[in-house]
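Worked example 3 (structure in, sequence out).
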């Protein structure tokens, strides 16, 4: 047991043996790759954040974009910071087969809570640094630090053209986290070499052309942001959303090194306790807010409001429900029609609007005519554009 050595001078962390034992400890805790960078400001990331804010590429995102001076200065995060230990932890697991039915997809990083074990492991390493006389604070996916930039500086991986950090020999299905500490530790001597070369597969496979330059994502087009963004889902991207309920993996599942290497890399095939890889859309749309938060509460939901998931679910319904499944059969309403009717008369105009789109896309214009005189302007506006909704097939 490592105890706090009160009144004893801090341990000499510049000794290479100290760093090696700390790294070893981190790896034993399940962190796949660990590296070190110094705590100087993240100048490149600061310029990028300001630039993307100025060009509108960050859309309405807050996160690290809200206060670039803060998120790129480790000394604001921890006064007197000298070093940052950066770790990558795999979130790869074998993907289950499609369960059939009207099922929405969840991106790999969101299928389970991968941040808690990452943070717990980092906390144990931080505890050891504190016991040795230093301040040490853990950050993982928070607003105070740009995780990819410190990972790059710590030599963990290269910046892919898809903006992800790819680990040599292992790809990009990794979450990143850090410990900002006052201890002086030897930083990585050089960054990992670029591994993209002439490949451009992620550009080609991105469903919305959101990669606008090497390592630059236009959040206004990126489905991973649009599924989180509150408000009306932009009409332009509703068809491209396909069956994605949360997150988008296409620029990684199309990435040759990630695809090739992640299966070779030791897979984490722990039973999935989180939301899972697929979500039954009808169940989602019939679920209570309490149950939705119990299952999906770990995700970023603006104002912790599950209506954004219902919105995504309605668009997915329009995109993937069998076109004849909403029609009346033998005088019995199908589950799709029941759920559409429910949402077409929902008290929330934002949900009525997306239900209107889904119904028309499924060829059920007959269900929505009365919304032409909806009391809410946004619903009337959606109705006024009804002829531009791409109908999958008209029910005969
Ligand atoms: C905001 C955010 C998003 C936003 C915006 C993403 C973005 N590109 O900025 C949205 C919601 C779209 C998003 C999506 C995703 N995210 Co995100 N996100 C974040 C968050 C909170 C901040 C990111 C940030 O500050 N970006 C700032 C910009 C300026 O950085 P950048 O885009 O990486 O730009 C750098 C490069 O352009 C590079 N660069 C400079 N010159 C050059 C030149 C070349 C040639 C190249 C290639 C690069 C390059 O320098 C820039 C500055 O560092 C971080 C967590 C955190 N606190 O850091 C997670 C984080 C980046 N996200 C993560 C994940 C897993 C994802 C998704 C894969 C999730 C999913 N499946 O849906 C997608 C991937 C989308 C994509 N292709 O980027 C992981 C990334 C892990 C990894 N291996 O890289 C992070 C680190 C969370 C974590 N702690 O694990 N995310
Ligand atoms: S996450 Fe999806 S939408 Fe965003 S850049 Fe990658 S492939 Fe494109
Ligand atoms: S798909 Fe190709 S270009 Fe894009 S990140 Fe992967 S290796 Fe790089």
């Amino acid at each position: 047991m490592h105890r706090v050595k009160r009144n004893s001078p801090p341990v000499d962390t510049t000794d290479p043996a100290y760093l090696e034992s700390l790294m070893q400890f981190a790896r034993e805790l399940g962190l796949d790759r660990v590296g070190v960078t110094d705590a100087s400001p993240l100048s490149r990331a600061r310029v990028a954040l300001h630039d993307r804010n100025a060009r509108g590429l960050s859309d309405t995102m807050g996160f690290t974009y809200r206060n670039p001076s803060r998120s790129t200065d480790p000394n604001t995060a921890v006064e007197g910071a000298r070093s940052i230990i950066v770790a990558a932890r795999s979130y790869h697991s074998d993907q289950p087969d499609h369960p059939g039915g009207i099922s929405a997809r969840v991106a790999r990083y969101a299928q389970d809570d991968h941040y808690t074990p990452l943070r717990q492991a980092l906390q144990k390493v931080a505890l050891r640094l504190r016991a040795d006389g230093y301040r040490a604070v853990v950050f993982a996916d928070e607003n105070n630090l740009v995780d990819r930039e410190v990972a790059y500086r710590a030599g963990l991986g290269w910046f892919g053209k898809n903006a992800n950090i790819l680990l040599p020999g292992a790809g990009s299905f990794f979450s990143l986290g850090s410990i900002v500490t006052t201890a002086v530790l030897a930083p990585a001597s050089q960054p990992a070499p670029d591994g993209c070369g002439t490949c451009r597969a992620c550009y080609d496979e991105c469903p919305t052309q959101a990669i606008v330059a090497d390592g630059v994502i236009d959040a206004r087009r990126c489905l991973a942001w649009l599924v989180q963004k509150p408000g009306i889902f932009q009409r332009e991207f509703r068809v491209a959303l396909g069956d994605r309920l949360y997150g988008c993996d296409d620029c990684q599942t199309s990435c040759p090194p990630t695809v090739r290497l992640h299966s070779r890399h030791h897979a984490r095939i722990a039973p999935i306790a989180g939301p899972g890889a697929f979500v039954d859309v009808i169940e989602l749309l019939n679920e209570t807010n309490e149950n939705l938060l119990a299952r999906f509460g770990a995700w970023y939901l603006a104002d912790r409001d599950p209506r954004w998931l219902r919105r995504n679910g309605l668009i997915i319904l329009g995109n993937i429900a069998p076109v004849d499944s909403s029609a009346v059969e033998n005088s019995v309403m199908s589950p799709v029609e029941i759920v559409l009717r429910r949402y077409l008369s929902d008290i929330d105009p934002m949900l009525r609007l997306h239900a209107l789109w889904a119904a028309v896309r499924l060829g059920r214009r007959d269900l929505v005519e009365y919304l032409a005189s909806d009391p809410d302007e946004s619903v009337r506006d959606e109705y006024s554009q009804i002829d531009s909704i791409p109908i999958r097939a008209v029910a005969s």
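Notes: The chain has a mean pLDDT of 93. Residues 163 and 215 are 4 Å apart (CA to CA).
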